[in-house]
Amino acid sequence: MGQQNDKLASENISKKLVNTPNNCVVDSLKGFVLSHANAKLLEGWNVILRSDIETFTKENKVVLITGGGSGHEPAHVGYVGRGMLTAVVCGDVFTSPSSASILNTILTCSNGAGVLLIVKNYTGDRLNFGKAAEVAKSQGINVEMVVVGEDCALTSKDKSAGRRGLCGTVFIHKMAGAMAEEGKSLSEIAAFLDTATSEMGTISISLSPCSIPGKPANFSIADDIVEFGLGIHGEAGVAQVKISSASTLVKQMIDHLWNSEFLPSIEGKEVAVIVNNLGGTSNLELTIIAKEALEYLASLKVAVKRCYVGAFVTSMEMAGVSLTIMLLNDERIKYLDAPCSAPAWQCDGLINDINDITIPCKKTEEANQEWDEKAEGIGIPLYHCVKKACTTLIDNESKLNELDRAGGDGDTGTTLARGAKGVFLKLSDENHLQLPVNSPRELFLSIAKEVETTMGGSSGALISLLFTAAANRLTRDTNMEDFISALEQGIAVMKKYGGAEEGDRTMLDALCPSLHSMGESLKSKVSVKEMLTMAAKAARAGADSTLSMHAKAGRASYVSDTHLTQPDPGAVAVALVFEAIDKAFSKLQK
Hints:
The protein has a six-stranded mixed beta sheet with strand order 1-2-4-3-5-6, with helices on both faces. Strands 9-8-7-12-10-11 form a six-stranded mixed beta sheet, covered by helices on one side. The chain is α/β, with parallel strands linked by helices. It has helices spanning 2-10, 24-35, 53-58, 99-109, 123-138, 169-182, 186-197, 246-258, 283-299, 330-337, 362-365, 379-395, 397-404, 412-425, 440-454, 457-471, 480-498, 508-524, 528-545, 569-589, and strands at 39-41, 47-50, 63-70, 87-93, 115-120, 143-148, 200-206, 225-228, 239-242, 270-277, 303-310, 320-327.
């Protein structure tokens, strides 16, 4: 195994979850039919058919066959089903299927209504599907072929290979399936699709290349570069552009389509859009691209009536997206909206109006309480202590993130700093404080609300719980005994809802020792200054002790102890806060 890994690394071959590269297509097709009851394999061939093919052929509806190289899943197998395709013929990864496999599919599926071959505009596909069509015709089968080439990357018409067939082919599959289901004739469907193909365009960008199982990537992309106008077979694009914001890249893509000599004018027209994941793009990124595309098209006075977002035609693991725009009319909308059982087309494409995407929040309709205070009495030490705690967390953001990388996702410092910044901003004007520092109860409730809003996640929830529960033990005339009782109540609630206990390697391992220290100090009747100093030392000792603890709660509990070589970041943050409070209070005593 080690030698195999060394060989993969030396040849720059990407890791793939396959058995063997030679059998990956066969294995994938078997996996598909095993998990989809509406599909079956054509015996002896890499072909997926509707499982009700015998019943379907008797319905005398036009047979729809497509196919091409594998590696574009869910295309093409995901589009087999009632209301879409009858069969798909699969070649090896990024390789056209043989004419023999296509011919046998035609022979198996053909009926009196005829067969329509939907082919993406690649030389191998045209040749193999074309040969199969001619042989089928010689045997008396009525066959027509629609070639889809909607790529708008090339800016001239003098390329012999012509425009490539890309994700827009899925629109053709969907409309063809609806028309066949409706009983339209072969010639009607072919003519309709040819016109639709001429009124749509696709442009793609990629942040990374892809690779065929057992092979290295076809090309490389620098970290600061985006490949512009590439196809779906791992080939390089027509240009390289500097990586920039999603907004800028989407504008470049749409502007390119807008200025293309291939795509008719879409200004003032109704269109359908596909935002397609080329394989390795996260859903978070994909919906950002969708947002930018819909907003930019709206600004160009283009009326988007349908938008489909997801993985429709991929290119193995390529991180990138394509945008397809098709002009709409009533018939095209009807066929896009028609019922369909194909597993990869379970979307209605309906969208919200660009100016109507929110529902009023009842909470925000209520008058929010605003504060404008100057610290007085107990508010003076509270103001300085809270402000110092905030600046300490902000200053230690990178340190806490570094501590979190071993046992979490490396963002503890950022999360805490985000909450601290939210609180700090409301304390920036000493004469007009936006937090009720003169009322400990109201201050704690306000801090709880602020961190819940700005921090988010489990940390935000836990700290908000801490302050909310603690506030219930406080009044405007609070003494140190009340603060200790409040901390005790806050910790108890954190344990109740968070599920952790002292010793589980969490922030409780610093909070609990500090609480215990303050309780003992109260019994000893030491000064508040001494009490805070001792509490800070106890918190630091508790944080340090987490280094040798086995994590039983939080993200670190999923990580092997061998990786936990630093103290818990949450506990360290608590220690930093107590130390900051100690310093702020001590400074006031001088």
